[in-house]
Amino acid sequence: MRILNSAKTKFLLIFVNILCSYIFYTTAVIREFSHKEEIDHGKVLPRIWVSKAYDDGIMVIRIIRKNATTSINNYLCFYEMFSLRIINLDGTVVEKNLKLDIQPLNYCVFQMISGGKWMEFLKYFLIRKNQILITYYNATDVNDPSTYVEWGMVMDFDGNISSRSSIGKPFIDNNLQLAIPNYQIVLNINREKGFMRYVRNNKTNHMDWKQFRIEPDGAITELTSGGLVLYGEVGVFIGIHTIDESYAFIFSNSTLNATNPLSPKGQVSILPIGYNQNPSPSLLIYQTTTPNLVFTFLFCDIAFLEVGHVCILTVIIQEDVTMTSGPLYYIKINFLSSGSVLSFQSQVNDLTLPVENPNVDWSVNSLIFGGYLLTGTIPTPTRPNICGYLFNDYNSAPIPWEFPEREPIGIRGVYQILHNNTLLVSQLETDNSWRFQVIDLPKVVGNKDKGYFNVKVESTYPAINSTIRPDIQNVKINFYDPVELSDGNLTIYQLIDNQPYLRQYITKSSCTVSIDGKTVIAKILDSTFSVSGGIYYIKMDNNFVRDKTYKESLLGIRDNIWNFNVKQKEVPFAHSMNGLLRLTPEGTKYFDSLPQENRSNFFNNLLNDLADVIPVPRSRLTSDEKTQLDLNVNEKQYLISIGVEETRVDNDYLSVETVVNDINTMVKSKDLTSINNGQASKYLDQSYGFIPTLDLWKTYEYKLLAIFLIIGLLIVLFFIARRRNSNGNNIAILQLGLIIFDLVIDITFININAKDVPVLYFPSIVFVTVPIGINTILAFYLITQENKRQQFLEWFMAHRKVASIFTILASTDIEALSILYSNLAGFSSFNAPFSDDAKSKIFWGACLNIFIEDIPQVIIQVDYIK
Question: Where are the transmembrane segments (predicted)?
Answer without folding.
Answer: 12-30, 702-721, 733-754, 760-783
